[in-house]
Structures are given as C-alpha cells and as structure tokens.
Amino acid sequence: MASPQAGSTSHHGTNWKKEVKDDDLLLFPDASQDDLIIVIMGLTGAGKSTFINRVCAKDDDEEEPEIMKVGHRLAPCTQSINYTTVALPQDHYLGPNRRLVLIDTPGFDDTKGEYETLRMISVWLASVYDQEIKITGLVYLHTIGQNRIGGSALLSHDVFHRICGMTALDRVVMATTQWDTIVKQSVGEIREDELKTQWWREVLSQGARYERIQKVREKEIIEHLLKNHSVSTQIQEELVDKDKRIMETEAGRKLIEWLKKMLPEAQQLSPEMEEELKSQFPVDNSFLDRVKGLFRPRKSRHSSRCVPPSTN
C-alpha cells in the first residue's frame, strides 16, 4: 500500500506565504504524511549538527558521519533550514524503511538576526502543516559549557516555548550537550539544576522531557519521540489555521517584547551604561551588539539587516 502523500489541498491561511523568500526551504522532496519529522533547535554551537550526525551513524560504535557540517569556528555552519533523511531499520516497530527526517535549524544568535531566524523557521513549519503533515517531535539543545544564561539563550528558549505551545510540549525534549567540555562534573550539575528548576521549569512542568546527552545517547532521544503521536505546533496553527502574520504570533510577539525592552538601553550607550544594563538584565555581549545593530539608523535603503515588520 502506497504511503499517503502530502495533502493536495491546503488550509485557508495564506498570510505566511507573503513572507516566503526565493531561497527558503519549503517541505522537502516527496514529503509524505508517513514521514517522521524531528526538528532540532538551539543556539549556535549547542551541537545541533553533531546530534544529527550521531543519529545517522549506523551503530553506536561507528564514527559519526559528517552529514551535517559541524562548526569549529566562530561563524555558524547552519545559517538556513537543512534536513537529512534516515530510513528506519527493517525490524523497527513503526515499519521497515519508514523515513525519519531530521531538521537542522539556525540559532537565534545567528548572524542573520533574530527576526530572520524566526521567519525562516516559521515559514518552513507553516509549509509542512499547510500540506497536512505534522511534527513527530522537537529537540532543544543547550551546551552545558555555557556558564551564564544571557540574553540570547533566554530569548531563544522563550521563542522556542511559544513556537511549540502547550499542546506540543509533550513532544519536546530539552537536552544539555557537551558535558565532555567542562572540567568539573559538579559545575555542570549545578548548571543543570539551575536549568531544570529555573529557566526550563515551566516547559518541563507542562510536559517537556529533560535529558542529559551523557547519560543517554542521541538515538535514545529519537526513539522516545517516535513512541507517541505526531502534533501540530502553536505557531503552525497560528500561521495556517488562524492566518496570522509571523509577528502576530505568540513567538513573534515575544521577540518584539524582547527587542522593545532592549531598545531604550541599547542605543548610544557608553561602556559604563552597557555594564549597568548587563547588571540589570541577563544580557550577554553578542545579544546586546545585535540589538544595537538592529535599531541603529540605516545608512542605506539597501541594508541587508532584517527588521521585524510592524504589526500595527
């Protein structure tokens, strides 16, 4: 029996299509409702590409193939939506050769800017849902080597939370990575406890699962997500069913809220004022620099910086 293909008729919402650019990835070849889609998110350097490469390895002892390019420099490797497909084993309980699709996404600290990152992720999710294909699960990665939860990490987590929505959180795994990069295990455990009891407390209490990619392997996380039904995320329903523009969604509004909070403090700051700002808000240097650049008056109408459109 042939697998059902993506729906030929779409939902009614079309506003999201106005924000699609020529080089955006929409769907993927031969998209099917039988596909098992796992979306991998997190900041630049959290290990998204490494996660995918390890899932694609034939066995746990094999050196991981570099299907997704792994970055070892300051510039991020993943600057757009990428994907890879893996056929499940012949004896898998979901069926032989069922297709697993792993989606690699740019981080919200990417050089393209926060709005452009949200736009790329949003239009991809909308294009999938528009063809009646649902998401099997989402994985959010955070490096345990990060010693401070700054503006970029908080914004990334808050926007991710609103991309998913409450109904999809039971299909989410929040995971820490790169435990081998910290000198003292106890330091990592303190940071882990802070994530679980403070920064990630709400999403975990609403159904998301926590994993340390040290005690479990990447493939175990995927297997956990494959056990349950597929879902639609909040932002998919907002864009397609409710016909909202990206910046009218809960994720878009959260981004605007963060930028507005940063705007008054971010312009024309002296070094002393910047230090004062960072002492009052959880702001790291890279996030502050991007906010200042985002709202700096444009010198040219051809500027490549993407500014969120007004929702008024």
Strand content: 5-15%
Global geometry: globular
Question: Which structural class best describes the helix and strand composition?
Answer: alpha/beta
Instruction: Report the count of strand segments.
Output: 6
Output the helix-strand order.
Answer: EHEEHEHEHHEHHHHH
Mean of residue pLDDT values: 81
Which strands sit side by side, in order, in the main sheet? 2-3-1-4-5-6
Low-pLDDT runs of 5+ residues are: 68-78, 296-307
The main β sheet shows up as:
6 strands, mixed
Rg is 20 Å
Distance between the termini: 50 Å
The number of helical segments is 10
Helix content: 25-40%
Account of the 3D structure:
Mean pLDDT is 81; it is low at 68-78 and 296-307. Strands 2-3-1-4-5-6 form a six-stranded mixed β-sheet, sandwiched between helices. It has 312 residues and is an alpha/beta fold. The longest helix is centred in the middle third of the chain and has 17 residues, at 114-130. It is built from ten helices and six strands. The chain is globular and about 55 Å long. The termini are far apart.
Write the layout of secondary structure elements.
Blueprint: E1 36-42, H1 48-56, E2 82-87, E3 99-104, H2 114-130, E4 137-143, H3 151-164, E5 172-177, H4 185-199, H5 201-205, E6 209-212, H6 218-226, H7 234-241, H8 250-266, H9 271-280, H10 285-295
Parallel strand pairs: 1-3, 1-4, 4-5, 5-6
Antiparallel strand pairs: 2-3
Helix pairs in contact: 2-7, 3-8, 8-10
